[in-house]
Amino acid sequence: MSLTLSSDDIARNPAWHLYDMDIKRGELHFLEVTPETFERSAFLDTRIGFTGDRLHGFPAEAVAAALAHARAGARPPTVNYLFHSSFCCSSLLARSLHRAGRTLVLREPLILRRLADLKREPGMAADFWPRQGQALLDMSLTLLAKTWADSESVLIKPTNLANSLAAELLTARPTARALFLYSDLETFLISNLKKPDVTKQKMPLLARIFSRETGYAGLFPELQLDQLDHLQSVVIVWHTQLLLFGRLLQTYLQRLASLDSAALLAEPETMITAAARFFGEALTAREVRDIVAGPVWHTHAKDPRATYDRQLREQENRELARRYCDELAGALRWAEPLLQRYPVSLPLPRAL
């Protein structure tokens, strides 16, 4: 099937999902999707599933023209955000809030990662992004916010690599609300220890990226980021993100809230109810009980075929804490002076 460039298909038909972009060619790339794509795909990046495999590329200028025509008199979609520090049960919460016909959740769409990468490119950041980045972000949000039912709102969970866009995402949608989900430092360290080597190897690069984007290196000029070990890099990844959202929470006090993942795991029914209410969705007590008793909370959030629950997670974390007790203690001691100089108040302002 070929994509017809029309106001209906581009701006209204949710079967055409904005997947990626080629900025050098000035193209936007779409995939043919179904509701199953959003419900069952772990992420909407390279791991996206239940789609037509063929990418359909169209000139960004032509898409923008179609959107301008389609927007005339149209009801603006309701869009909210679920930001996160990573390794903090954000996929679990996102799956818990996905309600067909009511809340369509988009877990880590690739296009937002692409835009964040574009913004951080030195040449683009100085020239292209200030002139055209916000318009491109606005168009992407409009294309992402297509639903199968008028009654549906859209909740976007960007990858944490797109956290640098958080302020711009909130600015682009002045009525949007956002929740920042995080964990404490020790839990964040433990979660990294149980990740595969390919994930662990990314931590030094992420530490450098987040440090540069948040101005963290200027706060600690004595740090040699290229000489840190794995867990020290993980400390920096955590600290930069918590400081970033601590500032954002002060700026967007009425629209941005925070949630400690420990509270979500300890009181899932209470926290799911509160999160849904914050985003404008009223869940009944029966609905929330069914969510927590159902497959979402008893399978792996990234692999619904695998059995997993809170008890198994706690057992894994205890075993890892015992196995790596010396390494964890060393990393926490190393982090103490950093946190003393620039403390993170937990819970963050405006806890959910």
> First CA to last CA: what distance?
45 Å
Question: How much helical structure, as a percent, in the residues?
Answer: 40-55%
Order of helices and strands: HEEHEHEHEHHEHEHHHHHEHHHEEHH
The stretches of 5 or more residues where confidence is low (pLDDT under 50) are none
- CATH class designation of the domain at 77-102 and 151-341: Alpha Beta
CATH architecture of the domain at 77-102 and 151-341: 3-Layer(aba) Sandwich
**How would you classify the helix and strand content by structural class?**
alpha/beta
Number of strands: 10
* Main beta sheet strand tally, sense and closure: 5 strands, parallel
Round the Cα radius of gyration to an integer and report it.
20 Å
Question: Going across the major beta sheet, what is the strand order?
Answer: 5-6-4-7-8
Average pLDDT level: 92
Shape: globular
Per the CATH scheme, the topology name of the domain at 77-102 and 151-341 is: Rossmann fold
Strand content: 5-15%
**Count, helices:** 17
